[in-house]
Amino acid sequence: MNKRVMTSELAGAWYSDDPVRLTHEIRAYMEAADRIAVPNVIALILPHAGYRYSGMVAACGLKQVEGRTFERVIILGPSHRVGLMDAVSIPDVTHIETPLGEVELDTTFIAALRKNAAFLSYEAAHRSEHSVQIQLPLLQHVLGGFKAVPIVCGQLEEQSAREIAATLLEHSDNKTLLVVSSDFTHYGRSFDYVPFDDDIQEKLEQLDLEAFRLIEQKNLPGFLAYIQNTGATICGRSPIAVLLAMLSENTQVRLIKYDTSGNMTGDWAHTVSYVSAAISGQWKTCCEKGDGCPCVLSDSDKIGLLRLARYQITRKLMPELPALELARSPAMEGVMGAFVTLHENGMLRGCIGEIFPRRALFDAVKEQALHAAFKDPRFPPVEGRELGDISIEISALTAPHKVKSPADIEIGKHGIVLYKGTHSAVFLPQVAPEQGWGLEETLTHLSLKAGLPSDGWQTGCEFQIFEAIVFSEH
C-alpha cells in the first residue's frame, strides 16, 4: 500500500509548532493532573479547544490511561464546517503528521468499517477540522505507539448514531480506546446562545452538568432530547451519541474534571465549557469469528437461550413457576440484536425483536420472547393451551450497516432493512429462502410490508443489511 500522509494544519495556531516546546507544554499539563483510580478505562471524553484553554482538562482525562497500551485509538469528533447528514468520514490516508511525528492509521480496521456505506471519505471534512486532530499530539505523548482511526462525525439522528455505534462495536475489542472529542456549552452572543444573562457561572455549570448527568446514565434518548429542549451548544453531541449507543449496562461513566474558559479569563459574556470523563468496563461485542472468540454461540448457549425464551412465556402464563437457574455465558453477554419468532403447527404465531445491538443478547431474548408471545399486534396473545404446540426460533443479529444498492444484498445470507421517508420494514435472512423468493420478489414483498407500492423499493430507498445466527427448538 502506498504511503499517504496528511499533515495536520493545527500546529502554530491551536498548539505550538515547535516539538520541544509542545512536548514541554503537554508534559507540564500531565504532571499537574491528578490521577483518579478509574479501572479498565475503555473510553474518554476530552475537550478540543486550544491547549492554553482546554489542555489541563484534557490532561486530567488522559491521566487515567497513562501507562496503558492500546493497539488502536478511535477518535470521534464533530464536523464544525462541513455538513455530513447521517454519515461520518475517515480520511483516505495512511498517516497523519503532527510536530511530534507521524501517526499511523489502522487501515485494516478502517477497511472493515467502510463496508458500511455511512463511513465516507470526504476530504473537505478533514481539511482544517480541529476536533479530531487536536487530540493526536496529546495521545502521542501519553500513549506512545498506537494506530489511529480518525472519524469526523456529521449530524447524526439517533438511529444513525446507533448504526455507527453498532459497526464500531462489531470490530472493536478491549485493546481499543475510544476518544470522544467535544467541548460543552458555547455561551455568548458570538455563539448565538444567551439563554440567561445573570448568574452566568452558576447557571452554565448547572446546564452542563445536567447534560453530563444524562451521559452518566447512558441515556441516549434523554441526552438528545435535552439538547433539543435547551438548545445547549454542545458541539460534540453526535460523537457523544455514538458513544452512548456503544455502552453496555456494565460500563460506568465518571466525570474527571469540569472547567470553563470564563473561569480562566474572567470573560463570562463569551465562554466555552470543557469536560473530561472516563468510561470503564469492557466493549461488549458479538460475532462468529471462530477459535478463541468469546462471543461464539455454542450449542449449550443456544439451548440455554431457547430455554430462557420458553420460560419467559410460560411464567407469564403461570406466575407460580419457580425461578429459572441459567448461567449467563460470555457469549450470552455479548451485545447483539435479537428476534424471537414463534410458530404454531408450522404457522407464524408471533415475531418481534430489536435490530440494533444495544444490550446483552441474554437480556434482548428475555424481553423479546414476551413481546413475540403477547405484544405482536398481528396476533392475539398466546394462551396456556397453546404452549405445547408452539415452537421457538431465535435470530441473534450482527450489526446492520448501509449498502450502496440492492445489488449488494445476498439472499439467504443477509437480513434486509428498507427505509423510505417515514416507511420502513425488515425481513430476517431466513424469510426469503423459506418463501422461495429471489431478490426482486423479496424487495417487492418488503416494500408492501413497509406500506409502499410493490415497486417502491426501486427508487429513493435506503437499505441496510445484517446477518443472523438462527437456531430453534426444532
What does this structure look like?
The structure is a single chain. A hairpin with a 2-residue loop joins strand 17 and strand 18 (423-427). This protein has two domains: 5-280, Protocatechuate 4,5-dioxygenase, Chain B, CATH 3.40.830.10; 299-472, Hypothetical protein ph0010, domain 1 (Glycoprotein, Type 4 Pilin), CATH 3.30.700.20. The chain has 474 residues and is of the alpha+beta class. Mean pLDDT is 92; it is low at 286-295. The radius of gyration is 24 Å and the shape is globular. The chain has helices at 19-32, 51-62, 107-113, 130-133, 135-143, 158-171, 200-216, 220-230, 237-246, 261-265, 299-317, 330-333, 361-374, 431-435, 439-449; strands at residues 5-7, 41-46, 72-78, 88-89, 95-98, 101-104, 119-120, 147-153, 176-181, 186-188, 252-260, 270-280, 337-344, 347-354, 390-397, 401-403, 415-420, 423-427, 462-466, 468-472. The strands form four sheets. Strands 2, 3, 4, 7, 8, 9, 10, 11 and 12 form a nine-stranded mixed β-sheet that branches. Strands 14-13-15-20 form a four-stranded antiparallel β-sheet, with helices on one face. Helix content is 33%, strand content 24%.
